[in-house]
Amino acid sequence: MAEWKDGIAKLTMPTPFKVGDVNAYLIKGDCLTLVDAGIKTKASWNSFKAQLADLHVNTDDIEQVIITHHHADHVGMLDFLSDKAEVYGHPLNERWIKPTEDFFQEQEDFFRGLFLEFGLPQEYLPSLSSLRQAFKYSCNRSLAGELVEGMVPPGLTEWSVIETPGHAQSQIALFREGDGILIGGDLILSHISPNPILEAPAPGEKERPRPQLQHNDSMKKLLSYPIQCVYTGHGEEVFQLRELIEKRLFHQHERAMKVNNWLKEKQQTVFELCKSLFPTAYKRELMLTLSETVGQLDYLASIGEISSKDHQPVLYQAR
């Protein structure tokens, strides 16, 4: 049953994804604010309305929505909310939450090139169509305003924005310094380590992002804030933040060094390494497992452990 605590109510909705339920948060401020908006399914919407009823709130009472990042399980129900509820988030959300045909074409072209670079056989190219299919759970709304590092969101004078890219290029967190509460999206989760998901370069950029490195930096960035509690995008709250971040960084380094040991034995492509890291999951979760694999390689390159041959596909080797 949803309830208010320190002016925040946690709402938990089901998703059809492996990650399970997703959290959203209602905040009492100068205007009633929803942080994240679940996924676009009837089950999620019905669960959402039932929890609002526990709080004696109607969907039309929500005056604005802030999205921590653009993934479908955090934005989908924007399509079910009243147009009166203005949407705020990082500027990189816009092309994802209101996608155009040019955007879809750009994504497919980028990943087609990446598949060749990674050494995927031709038989995997048709899976590029899944990029569009994932948007059936997303939304078609525009931002009313943009939120970037250090800004105070409209109607939430006690809160400030922290940019935390990695899991998504658009990801932000909201911090209330008065009591050390952070609403962190999918930056840090109590039970699993979030995927550093590959994205095409942002408009005006040529190089692809390095999401694993960004994710590590974003976690370390949190250590400079007096955070007492993290309300997360999935699962339970995090109270021992420093210990969890150190644990996540340690395990990521360990996984990367396992990859490094394989590369000491022979040169390999991203796809070959992906199959070794995820022998049962790589076909089912191709994009996620490729993102995780190249994330380990980006990390190893950043600490000087590996090099790559400019070859098609690219071959990686230990130094």
At a glance:
This protein has 319 residues and is of the alpha/beta class.
Give the topology.
Blueprint: E1 4-5, E2 8-13, E3 22-27, E4 33-35, H1 42-54, E5 64-66, H2 72-75, E6 86-89, H3 94-97, H4 101-118, H5 130-133, E7 145-146, E8 159-163, E9 172-176, E10 181-183, H6 211-222, E11 229-231, H7 241-265, H8 270-277, H9 286-302, E12 306-309, E13 315-318
Helix pairs in contact: 7-9, 8-9
Can you tell me about this structure?
Helix content is 33%, strand content 16%. The protein is of the alpha/beta class and 319 residues long. The chain folds into 2 domains: 4-98 and 138-239, Metallo-beta-lactamase, Chain A; 247-318, Arc Repressor Mutant, subunit A (Orthogonal Bundle), CATH 1.10.10. The strands form 3 sheets. Strands 1-2-3-4-5-6-7 form a 7-stranded mixed β-sheet, with helices on one face. Strands 8-9-10-11 form a 4-stranded mixed β-sheet, with no helix packed on it. The chain has a two-stranded antiparallel ribbon with strand order 12-13.
What key attributes describe this structure?
319 residues, Metallo-beta-lactamase, Chain A, Arc Repressor Mutant, subunit A, seven-stranded mixed β-sheet, four-stranded mixed β-sheet, globular
Work out the strand percent. 15-25%
Number of helices: 9
Low-confidence stretches at least 5 residues in length (pLDDT < 50)? Answer: none
By CATH, the topology of the largest domain is Metallo-beta-lactamase, Chain A
Which CATH first-tier class of the largest domain would you pick? Alpha Beta
Q: What's the gyration radius in Å?
A: 20 Å
